[in-house]
Every structure is written in structure tokens, then in C-alpha cells.
Design a protein that fits this description.
128 residues; alpha/beta
Length: 128
């Protein structure tokens, strides 16, 4: 299973989680079956590419997205590609994977998406 975390850098499991998944410079993908970690540049539409992040990551075989937070529209887009989204990620990729495995991240839904917590374009505050 491929698990994706939006990241600020190319440091693999030590990489820092990016708070804005769509504009993350990189995505770190862990294959939980093989243990292989790969870091790919974000070439989605938000970074000048042809596809929105959910479609872009679907093409990479991602099945799980672990991120800090996101809007409900994005949650629905990920779901349309069969990608499950969990929110509450922070720290490093390793921290996030451990939190997810321990059941500490929440499955994204209408109640915990950014739109329900006052997310706006000016502030970009994420209080999850």
C-alpha cells in the first residue's frame, strides 16, 4: 500500500510535513509492503502541471494520504480516486507514519476538514 505525505523537502522519513498539501514542494511516498520510500516533486496543477493533486497522486498509485488538513472539496476529490485521507499530520514523515499506525490521525470528513474550522485564504490557519 502506498502512503503519501506532503513534505517540505527531500529528506525521506526525516522530511518535514508541509501544512498545505496542494502546494507542497514534494510528496514523500512510503510503500508499506516493501518499506521503500520515494520523494517526488509536486508537479500537479498547483505547481504548473496538468492535474490537481488528487489525480496526480492517484496516477502515482497512492492509496492513503496523510496530511495536516485540507478542505472538504479536496477530501471528496481524493475519495473519487479511492484515496483515503487522514488529517492531523505534523512533525516529520516518520512521526506522521507512527501516529497513523497508532490510530492517532483522523479520517478526513466534512466535520474535520478546513472549511469547518474557519480556514480562509488570508489566514491559512490550521487548528485541528
Amino acid at each position: 500500500m502506498k502512503v503519501c505525505i506532503p513534505t517540505k523537502d527531500n529528506n525521506g522519513m526525516s522530511g518535514a510535513v508541509e501544512q498545505h498539501f496542494g502546494k507542497a514542494p514534494t510528496y514523500t511516498i512510503l510503500d508499506t509492503d516493501s518499506g521503500e520510500v520515494s520523494v517526488i516533486p509536486n508537479t500537479s496543477e498547483h505547481m504548473g502541471g496538468p492535474d490537481l493533486p488528487p489525480k496526480f497522486l492517484h496516477k502515482k498509485g497512492v492509496e492513503i494520504m496523510l496530511c495536516s488538513g485540507l478542505g472538504y472539496k479536496a477530501v471528496k476529490m481524493f475519495e473519487s480516486y479511492g484515496i483515503n485521507v487522514f488529517v492531523g499530520a505534523g512533525g516529520t514523515v516518520q512521526d506522521t507514519i507512527e501516529a497513523w499506525k497508532a490510530g492517532k490521525l483522523c479520517n478526513a470528513n466534512a466535520e474535520n476538514s478546513c472549511a469547518e474550522h474557519g480556514h480562509d485564504e488570508a489566514g491559512h490557519d490550521h487548528h485541528h
